[in-house]
Amino acid sequence: MKFSFKNDYSEGCHPRILESLLRHNTDQQGGYGEDEYSLKAKNLIKEKIDNKDAQVYFVSGGTQANLIVISSVLKPYQCVISTSTGHILNNETGAIEATGHKVLSIETEDGKLKPSDIQPILDSHKNIPHQVMPKLVYISNSTELGTIYKKEELENLSRFCRENNLYLFMDGARLGHAITSEISDLSLKDIAKLTDIFYLGGTKNGALIGEAIIINNQSLQEDFAFNIKQKGALLAKGRLLGIQFLELMKDDLYFDLAKHANQQAMKIKTALSEKGISFLSDTFTNQIFPVLNHQIIEILSEKFEFYVWKNVDENFSAVRLITSWNTSNEAVGDFIKIINNNL
């Protein structure tokens, strides 16, 4: 069997989660997220973000989280601003547009947004009331290109959004990897203070399924639960999500798993760099995009699965390699060995 570097959810879940699900399987609990595990997990998250007034909701996946947040927050005539690489634009089958909200995209080289990227959108949407109203800025951390927001960047973006009456929403499908990156200076507390809504992704970091939506802006909290239910995201057996996040949050397992994934990716990055390999973007998370010749891509494909991300020219392509909480030293060592023997 080939080892997969295609994504960070090829495996099931961390053994601790599976053990906890089995241990509590026959416990009788309330439904719809009112079980003791979900309530404890929500309190743990509030402690970690240092905001007891935040609201926390568990849903099953990232697309579901994005769809529910955006469709709940925006009025029918309001729209979203995203980078052209944003997950809501490229990987969600028009889920946001299907709820009636236009997504305005901005080309950026690093997958991140800054105030100077957004201002032209605001300037070109002043024909009131004949154009959609830009209202929510959607960002990902880490981004689809594996890059991360530094604290100063997020502070500047948050300030700009508040000055221009825009909501700031952070897709945190890989937030654990962003925070534990070796170059990160952002904490969960910082993110909670600087965003209106964000979510902690579990699916890509050790959980079977699950994302934790965290609403920091109290003006957006009212009636949010109705939207969860209406969109089919309120699980009767909410304990399935609560038990997982309780395990991930206690003892900082969530961050330990993300840090391991980052470290494994950086081992591969270092080995490739030492061979003079360039990268599509300079990342320090669990996603790397080395530019390889087609011959070495073919050799690596015999033992590993990964995506050919972008053709550079007739001889070279950028590939995307993603490591996970379960990426072993053996798999990384075998990959590096092939690189060393063929370059």
What can you see in these coordinates?
- This protein is 41% helix and 17% strand.
- It has 14 helices and 13 strands.
- The protein has helices at residues 15-23, 36-49, 62-73, 87-90, 95-98, 115-123, 151-163, 175-179, 188-194, 224-230, 239-249, 253-274, 294-301, 329-342; strands spanning 3-4, 55-59, 78-83, 103-106, 133-140, 167-171, 197-201, 211-215, 287-288, 291-293, 304-305, 307-311, 316-322.
- The longest helix has 22 residues, at 253-274.
- The mean pLDDT is 97.
Topology:
Layout: E1 3-4, H1 15-23, H2 36-49, E2 55-59, H3 62-73, E3 78-83, H4 87-90, H5 95-98, E4 103-106, H6 115-123, E5 133-140, H7 151-163, E6 167-171, H8 175-179, H9 188-194, E7 197-201, E8 211-215, H10 224-230, H11 239-249, H12 253-274, E9 287-288, E10 291-293, H13 294-301, E11 304-305, E12 307-311, E13 316-322, H14 329-342
Parallel strand pairs: 1-11, 3-4, 3-5, 5-6, 6-7
Antiparallel strand pairs: 2-8, 7-8, 9-13, 10-13, 12-13
One letter per element, helices H and strands E, the order comes to: EHHEHEHHEHEHEHHEEHHHEEHEEEH
Helix content: 40-55%
Strand order of the largest sheet: 2-8-7-6-5-3-4
Strand content: 15-25%
- Mean pLDDT, to the nearest integer, reads 97
- In whole angstroms, the N-to-C terminal distance is 24 Å
Number of helical segments? Answer: 14
C-alpha-based Rg, rounded:
21 Å
